[in-house]
Every structure is written in C-alpha cells, then in structure tokens.
Write a structure and sequence with these properties.
4-stranded antiparallel beta sheet, 7-stranded parallel beta sheet, alpha/beta, 11 strands, single chain, disordered N terminus, membrane, transmembrane, cell membrane, 15 helices, LPS_length_determ_N, Polysaccharide biosynthesis protein
C-alpha cells in the first residue's frame, strides 16, 4: 500500500515584513540622517537666534487651613490656578505702577508646585532687573491675597459661630424668665416643668461656651497661617548658559529629526513596496540570484572586494554565455551604468575565444555612443542587431525599465540575465517584468543584484522555480555564435512546462516497493 503525500498549505504572508522594513529603512539612512542633522542645526539656530528672555524666580511657602499629610497636591494646584488670575496680576501691576494689561502680564509668568506647600513663581521681563521686580511684586500680591482670603475665611467662621452663640443666649434668657415665673408655682406638674427648664438652661449654657471657644480658636488659627505664608526664596535672576541651551536644543532637534526621518522612511517604504531582500527579488522575478555587486566602493578594502566580485561574476557569466545554445542578453532595471560595465567586462573575457559584438539596446545608446578605447569590443546599436554575422558571438544589453518595448527584447537574446538594483523596482513592476519575459519566451538565467544590503542573510535561490523554457521543435540548436539552420530558429508558441514541486516526488516506503 502506497502512502500519498499531501501538499502542505503555503504559510500566510505577514501584513508587514519587519525584516524587509528594517532593511529598507536602513538603506534610506541618508534621509533620516539628513533629517536628524537638519533638526540638530535647527536646534542650534533656535538657541542662537531666539535666546530665552531674562527670567527671575522666587519661591513662596503657602500654609493651608486644610493641610493633610496625605494631600495629593490638590491645594498647591489650586494656588497655581489662583496665581493665574487677573486679580493677582492686576494687584502686582498696580504695585509696579505698570499700565500693562493683566491678561498680557499673565502670559509672562508661570507657577509650579514643588511640594504641597512650596510654590515656585517664574517671571520674564525685558531685563533682569525688571524680571526680578515683577517676580517680587507678583509674590507679594499672591501672599497678600492668600492672607486676605485666610482672614476672611476665619472672620466669616467666627462671625457665624458668634451669631449662633447670640441666638443661644436669647433662648437662654427665655428659659431663665420661664424659670423665674415657675418658681412661684407649686405642685407635681410645676416641679417637673421646672426640672426640664433647668436641664434646658444647662444645655444652652454648655453650647454657648462651646461656640465661644470655637470662635476664639478660629481667630487664634489665623495668625499661624498668616505667619506660615511667606516668601522663602527672594526673587533672583536666572542665569542662562548659551552653550548649554544650544546643546539642549540641538539634542532635542536631533531626536525629533531622527524620529521624523525614521517615520518618513518607514511610511515611504511601506507605501512604495520596493523589495530589497534577495529572497523577495528572486521570488517576484522567478529566478535565483547569481551574484551581487555593491553600487559604490569606498575604501581600498571594499574596492578590492568589489573588483574580486566583478571578476567572479564575469567568469560565471562567460561560462554561461559559452555554454548557451542561444544568444544571451543583459537586461538592467535601475542600474544602466553598472550593466554596461558588466557587458564590456564580459565581452572582454569572451574575446579570446572569438569575435564578440555587443548589441546596445539601452535607453540613449549608452555603449554605442561612448568613445571606444583600445581593446574594447565592437558595439552596435539595437537597430543593427540583425546585421551581426552568424559566426560572431552576440551579447545584447537592454533595459526592462518602464517604457520598454517588450517585443524587441527577444532580438537581444532569448536567454537573459537580469541586472537589478535592490529597492529600485516595485513588486508590481517586478511581476510585470517576469510576466512579459515569459510571454516573449525569454528565459531568465538568473539575477545579478546591484547595491544589496550588506546585512542581508536571506537566500536568493529558488528551489522550486520554473525550469528553462521548453517545447522547441527541431534538432538541437547550435551554440551561441554558430550558424543556425532555419528549422532550428522556428519556435513553437507554447508555454513552458511547469516543474513538479518537491513534495510531489514519490519516495518508496520499503525495499520491496522499490524493487
């Protein structure tokens, strides 16, 4: 009995690939570094061009009647709110003799609660002396207003208690009068009534004494609160350090600039949807990554590594072109200069085996219009591709950028190597390139990745990708550069056969089944 292997469902693609996002943001480091530098310079410019105005500070100790050890700071916040009132601002301006409006003056000072009973007042002015004078006047106005409110509250409480005491005294006088009138009467009922009147008089006397004591305590607590509310730190000018202010503003600007730059880079990456990882580019183009070359080389060690990588790539491509039965082309996407240099190096490597002609199909005919150097291969334009003699090896160079004439790519070569700059083409355009090349029956041998991310550790190999286009009739085609009969050049319009996935390959379960 044979067990049949069922295919595993493909893993669901994440909404946002964090690895690709991090790589793309890191590749756009010029943007967020420039934003950070711009923010740093803006911070320094603000510190130099907009220095803080002269400022003075003073600290006031505020005593409250309702002070509690577990107070969460409600009372001091109330004092801060009272400080920002036109009444206190107007009193301070009147003491200064200033015609300024209280509403305008309120914008020049601020209060902050340091503890439950400490209030810091910060005032700005045109000069240090003016700022100190305004801070002192504002603190005095606040203390005077606070003391007045305490005294008014104490007087109101004492007056209320004394009023109640007076009412009790009137009741007591009536009770005394009733006792005097009932003293002449006799009998059990008169005795009971007289006893209740004496109890009522004792209660009223006690309550009158209590109201007198509470009124006295209300007035006695006021001097303690008044003495406890005072200026504990005299107004003084605040010294500003220009280097410290510049460093602080520069740091804040740097952080904000970097944050904005990183956010812009991340949003731009998600919106643009331009693959940068090897695995994504290979998956979207349907071909494996053969090699990768850095776009820029800085430093002697990197230039040496780049030169070594280009020599290795040239050797690999030369082996591919020699063993190909059909013309091979190099098609670029976002890296025309690099593609032209690779084509010239490849033509130079193939020159010892025979004459090589480079067919330039790049936009603007970059190679055909360049000034030839001694030893350079022959370069012809794309319109002269059909005039290449059959015995010469032909190497086409073209582009798959937007605006490409897809039907002309087949004249450059029926097999191609895509030279793609990482992060240049969008996912939709990579799919378009793969679909158009398949429709034109142009086989993609592989992909050369330009300017890859140096920290990219993904695999750019397609293990279950489509094989080489098949379905061609007639005898085997000659090698690239050999004369081909007409029957060999006839191609059937047939779609390439699909490769069976690896999970569909049947493996025998036992030795008996294998036999």
């Amino acid at each position: 009995m044979t067990a049949r292997t069922t295919p595993q469902p493909p893993a669901a693609a994440p909404l946002i690939d964090l690895q690709a996002l991090v790589v793309a943001v890191r590749r756009r480091r010029r943007l967020w570094c420039a934003m950070g530098l711009l923010g740093l310079l803006a911070g320094v410019a603000v510190a130099l061009l907009l220095p803080p105005p002269p400022t003075a500070e003073t600290t006031v100790l505020v005593a409250h009647q309702e002070d509690q050890p577990n107070d969460p700071g409600t009372l001091i916040r109330t004092d801060v709110g009272l400080l920002h009132t036109t009444r206190i601002a107007g009193q301070a301006l009147r003491s200064l003799g200033s015609p300024e409006k209280p509403e305008d003056f309120m914008e020049d000072y601020a209060g902050a609660g340091l503890t439950n009973n400490l209030l810091r007042i910060t005032v700005s002015g045109d000069s240090d002396a003016e700022a100190v004078a305004r801070a002192g006047a504002l603190a005095d106005a606040f203390v005077a207003d606070h003391v007045r409110r305490i005294q008014e509250a104490a007087n109101a409480e004492a007056t209320s208690l004394l009023d109640q005491r007076d009412r009790m005294r009137e009741d007591l006088a009536e009770v005394d009068r009733a006792i005097g009138e009932g003293a002449s009467e006799s009998g059990p009922k008169a005795s009971a009534n007289l006893e209740s009147l004496f109890a009522r008089r004792a209660e009223l006397t006690s309550r009158i004494a209590d109201f007198d004591q509470r009124a006295a305590e209300a007035r006695m607590g006021t001097p303690r609160l008044v003495a406890g509310t005072q200026i504990v730190d005299a107004p003084r000018a605040v010294r500003h350090s220009l280097p410290r202010a510049a460093a602080t503003d520069a740091g804040i600007g740097l952080v904000l600039g970097l944050a904005l730059g990183l956010a812009a880079a991340a949003v731009g990456t998600v919106v643009a949807d331009r693959p940068v990882l090897r695995r994504d580019i290979a998956a979207h183009l349907g071909a494996s990554v053969l090699a990768e070359l850095p776009r820029r080389s800085s430093g002697r060690w990197r230039r040496r590594r780049t030169r070594t990588a280009r020599e290795r790539l040239t050797t690999t491509l030369a082996r591919t072109v020699r063993g190909s039965a059909e013309p091979v082309s190099l098609l670029e996407l976002g890296c025309a200069p690099s593609t032209g240099a690779i084509a010239l190096d490849l033509a130079g490597a193939l020159a010892p085996q025979g004459p090589v002609v480079v067919v330039d199909g790049l936009p603007g005919a970059r190679l055909a219009r360049r000034r030839p150097r001694p030893g350079d291969p022959a370069v012809v334009g794309g319109e002269a591709a059909g005039t290449v003699p059959p015995g010469e090896l032909r190497l086409g160079v073209g582009s798959v950028a937007p605006g490409t004439a897809w039907t002309d790519l087949r004249y450059l070569g029926t097999r191609t190597v895509l030279v793609v700059r990482a992060g240049h083409g969008s996912t939709a355009w990579l799919h378009t390139v793969a679909r158009q090349l398949a429709d034109q029956h142009v086989e993609v041998v592989g992909v050369v990745l330009i300017d890859p991310d140096p920290r990219d550790r993904t695999d750019g190999t397609l293990w279950d990708g489509p094989p080489a286009p098949r379905g061609r009739s007639g005898p085997p085609a000659p090698r690239n550069g050999e004369a081909a009969p007409h029957a060999v050049q006839t191609v059937r319009e047939e779609r390439p056969a699909e490769r069976r996935p690896t999970w569909a390959v049947r493996v025998p379960d036992s030795d008996q089944e294998a036999r």
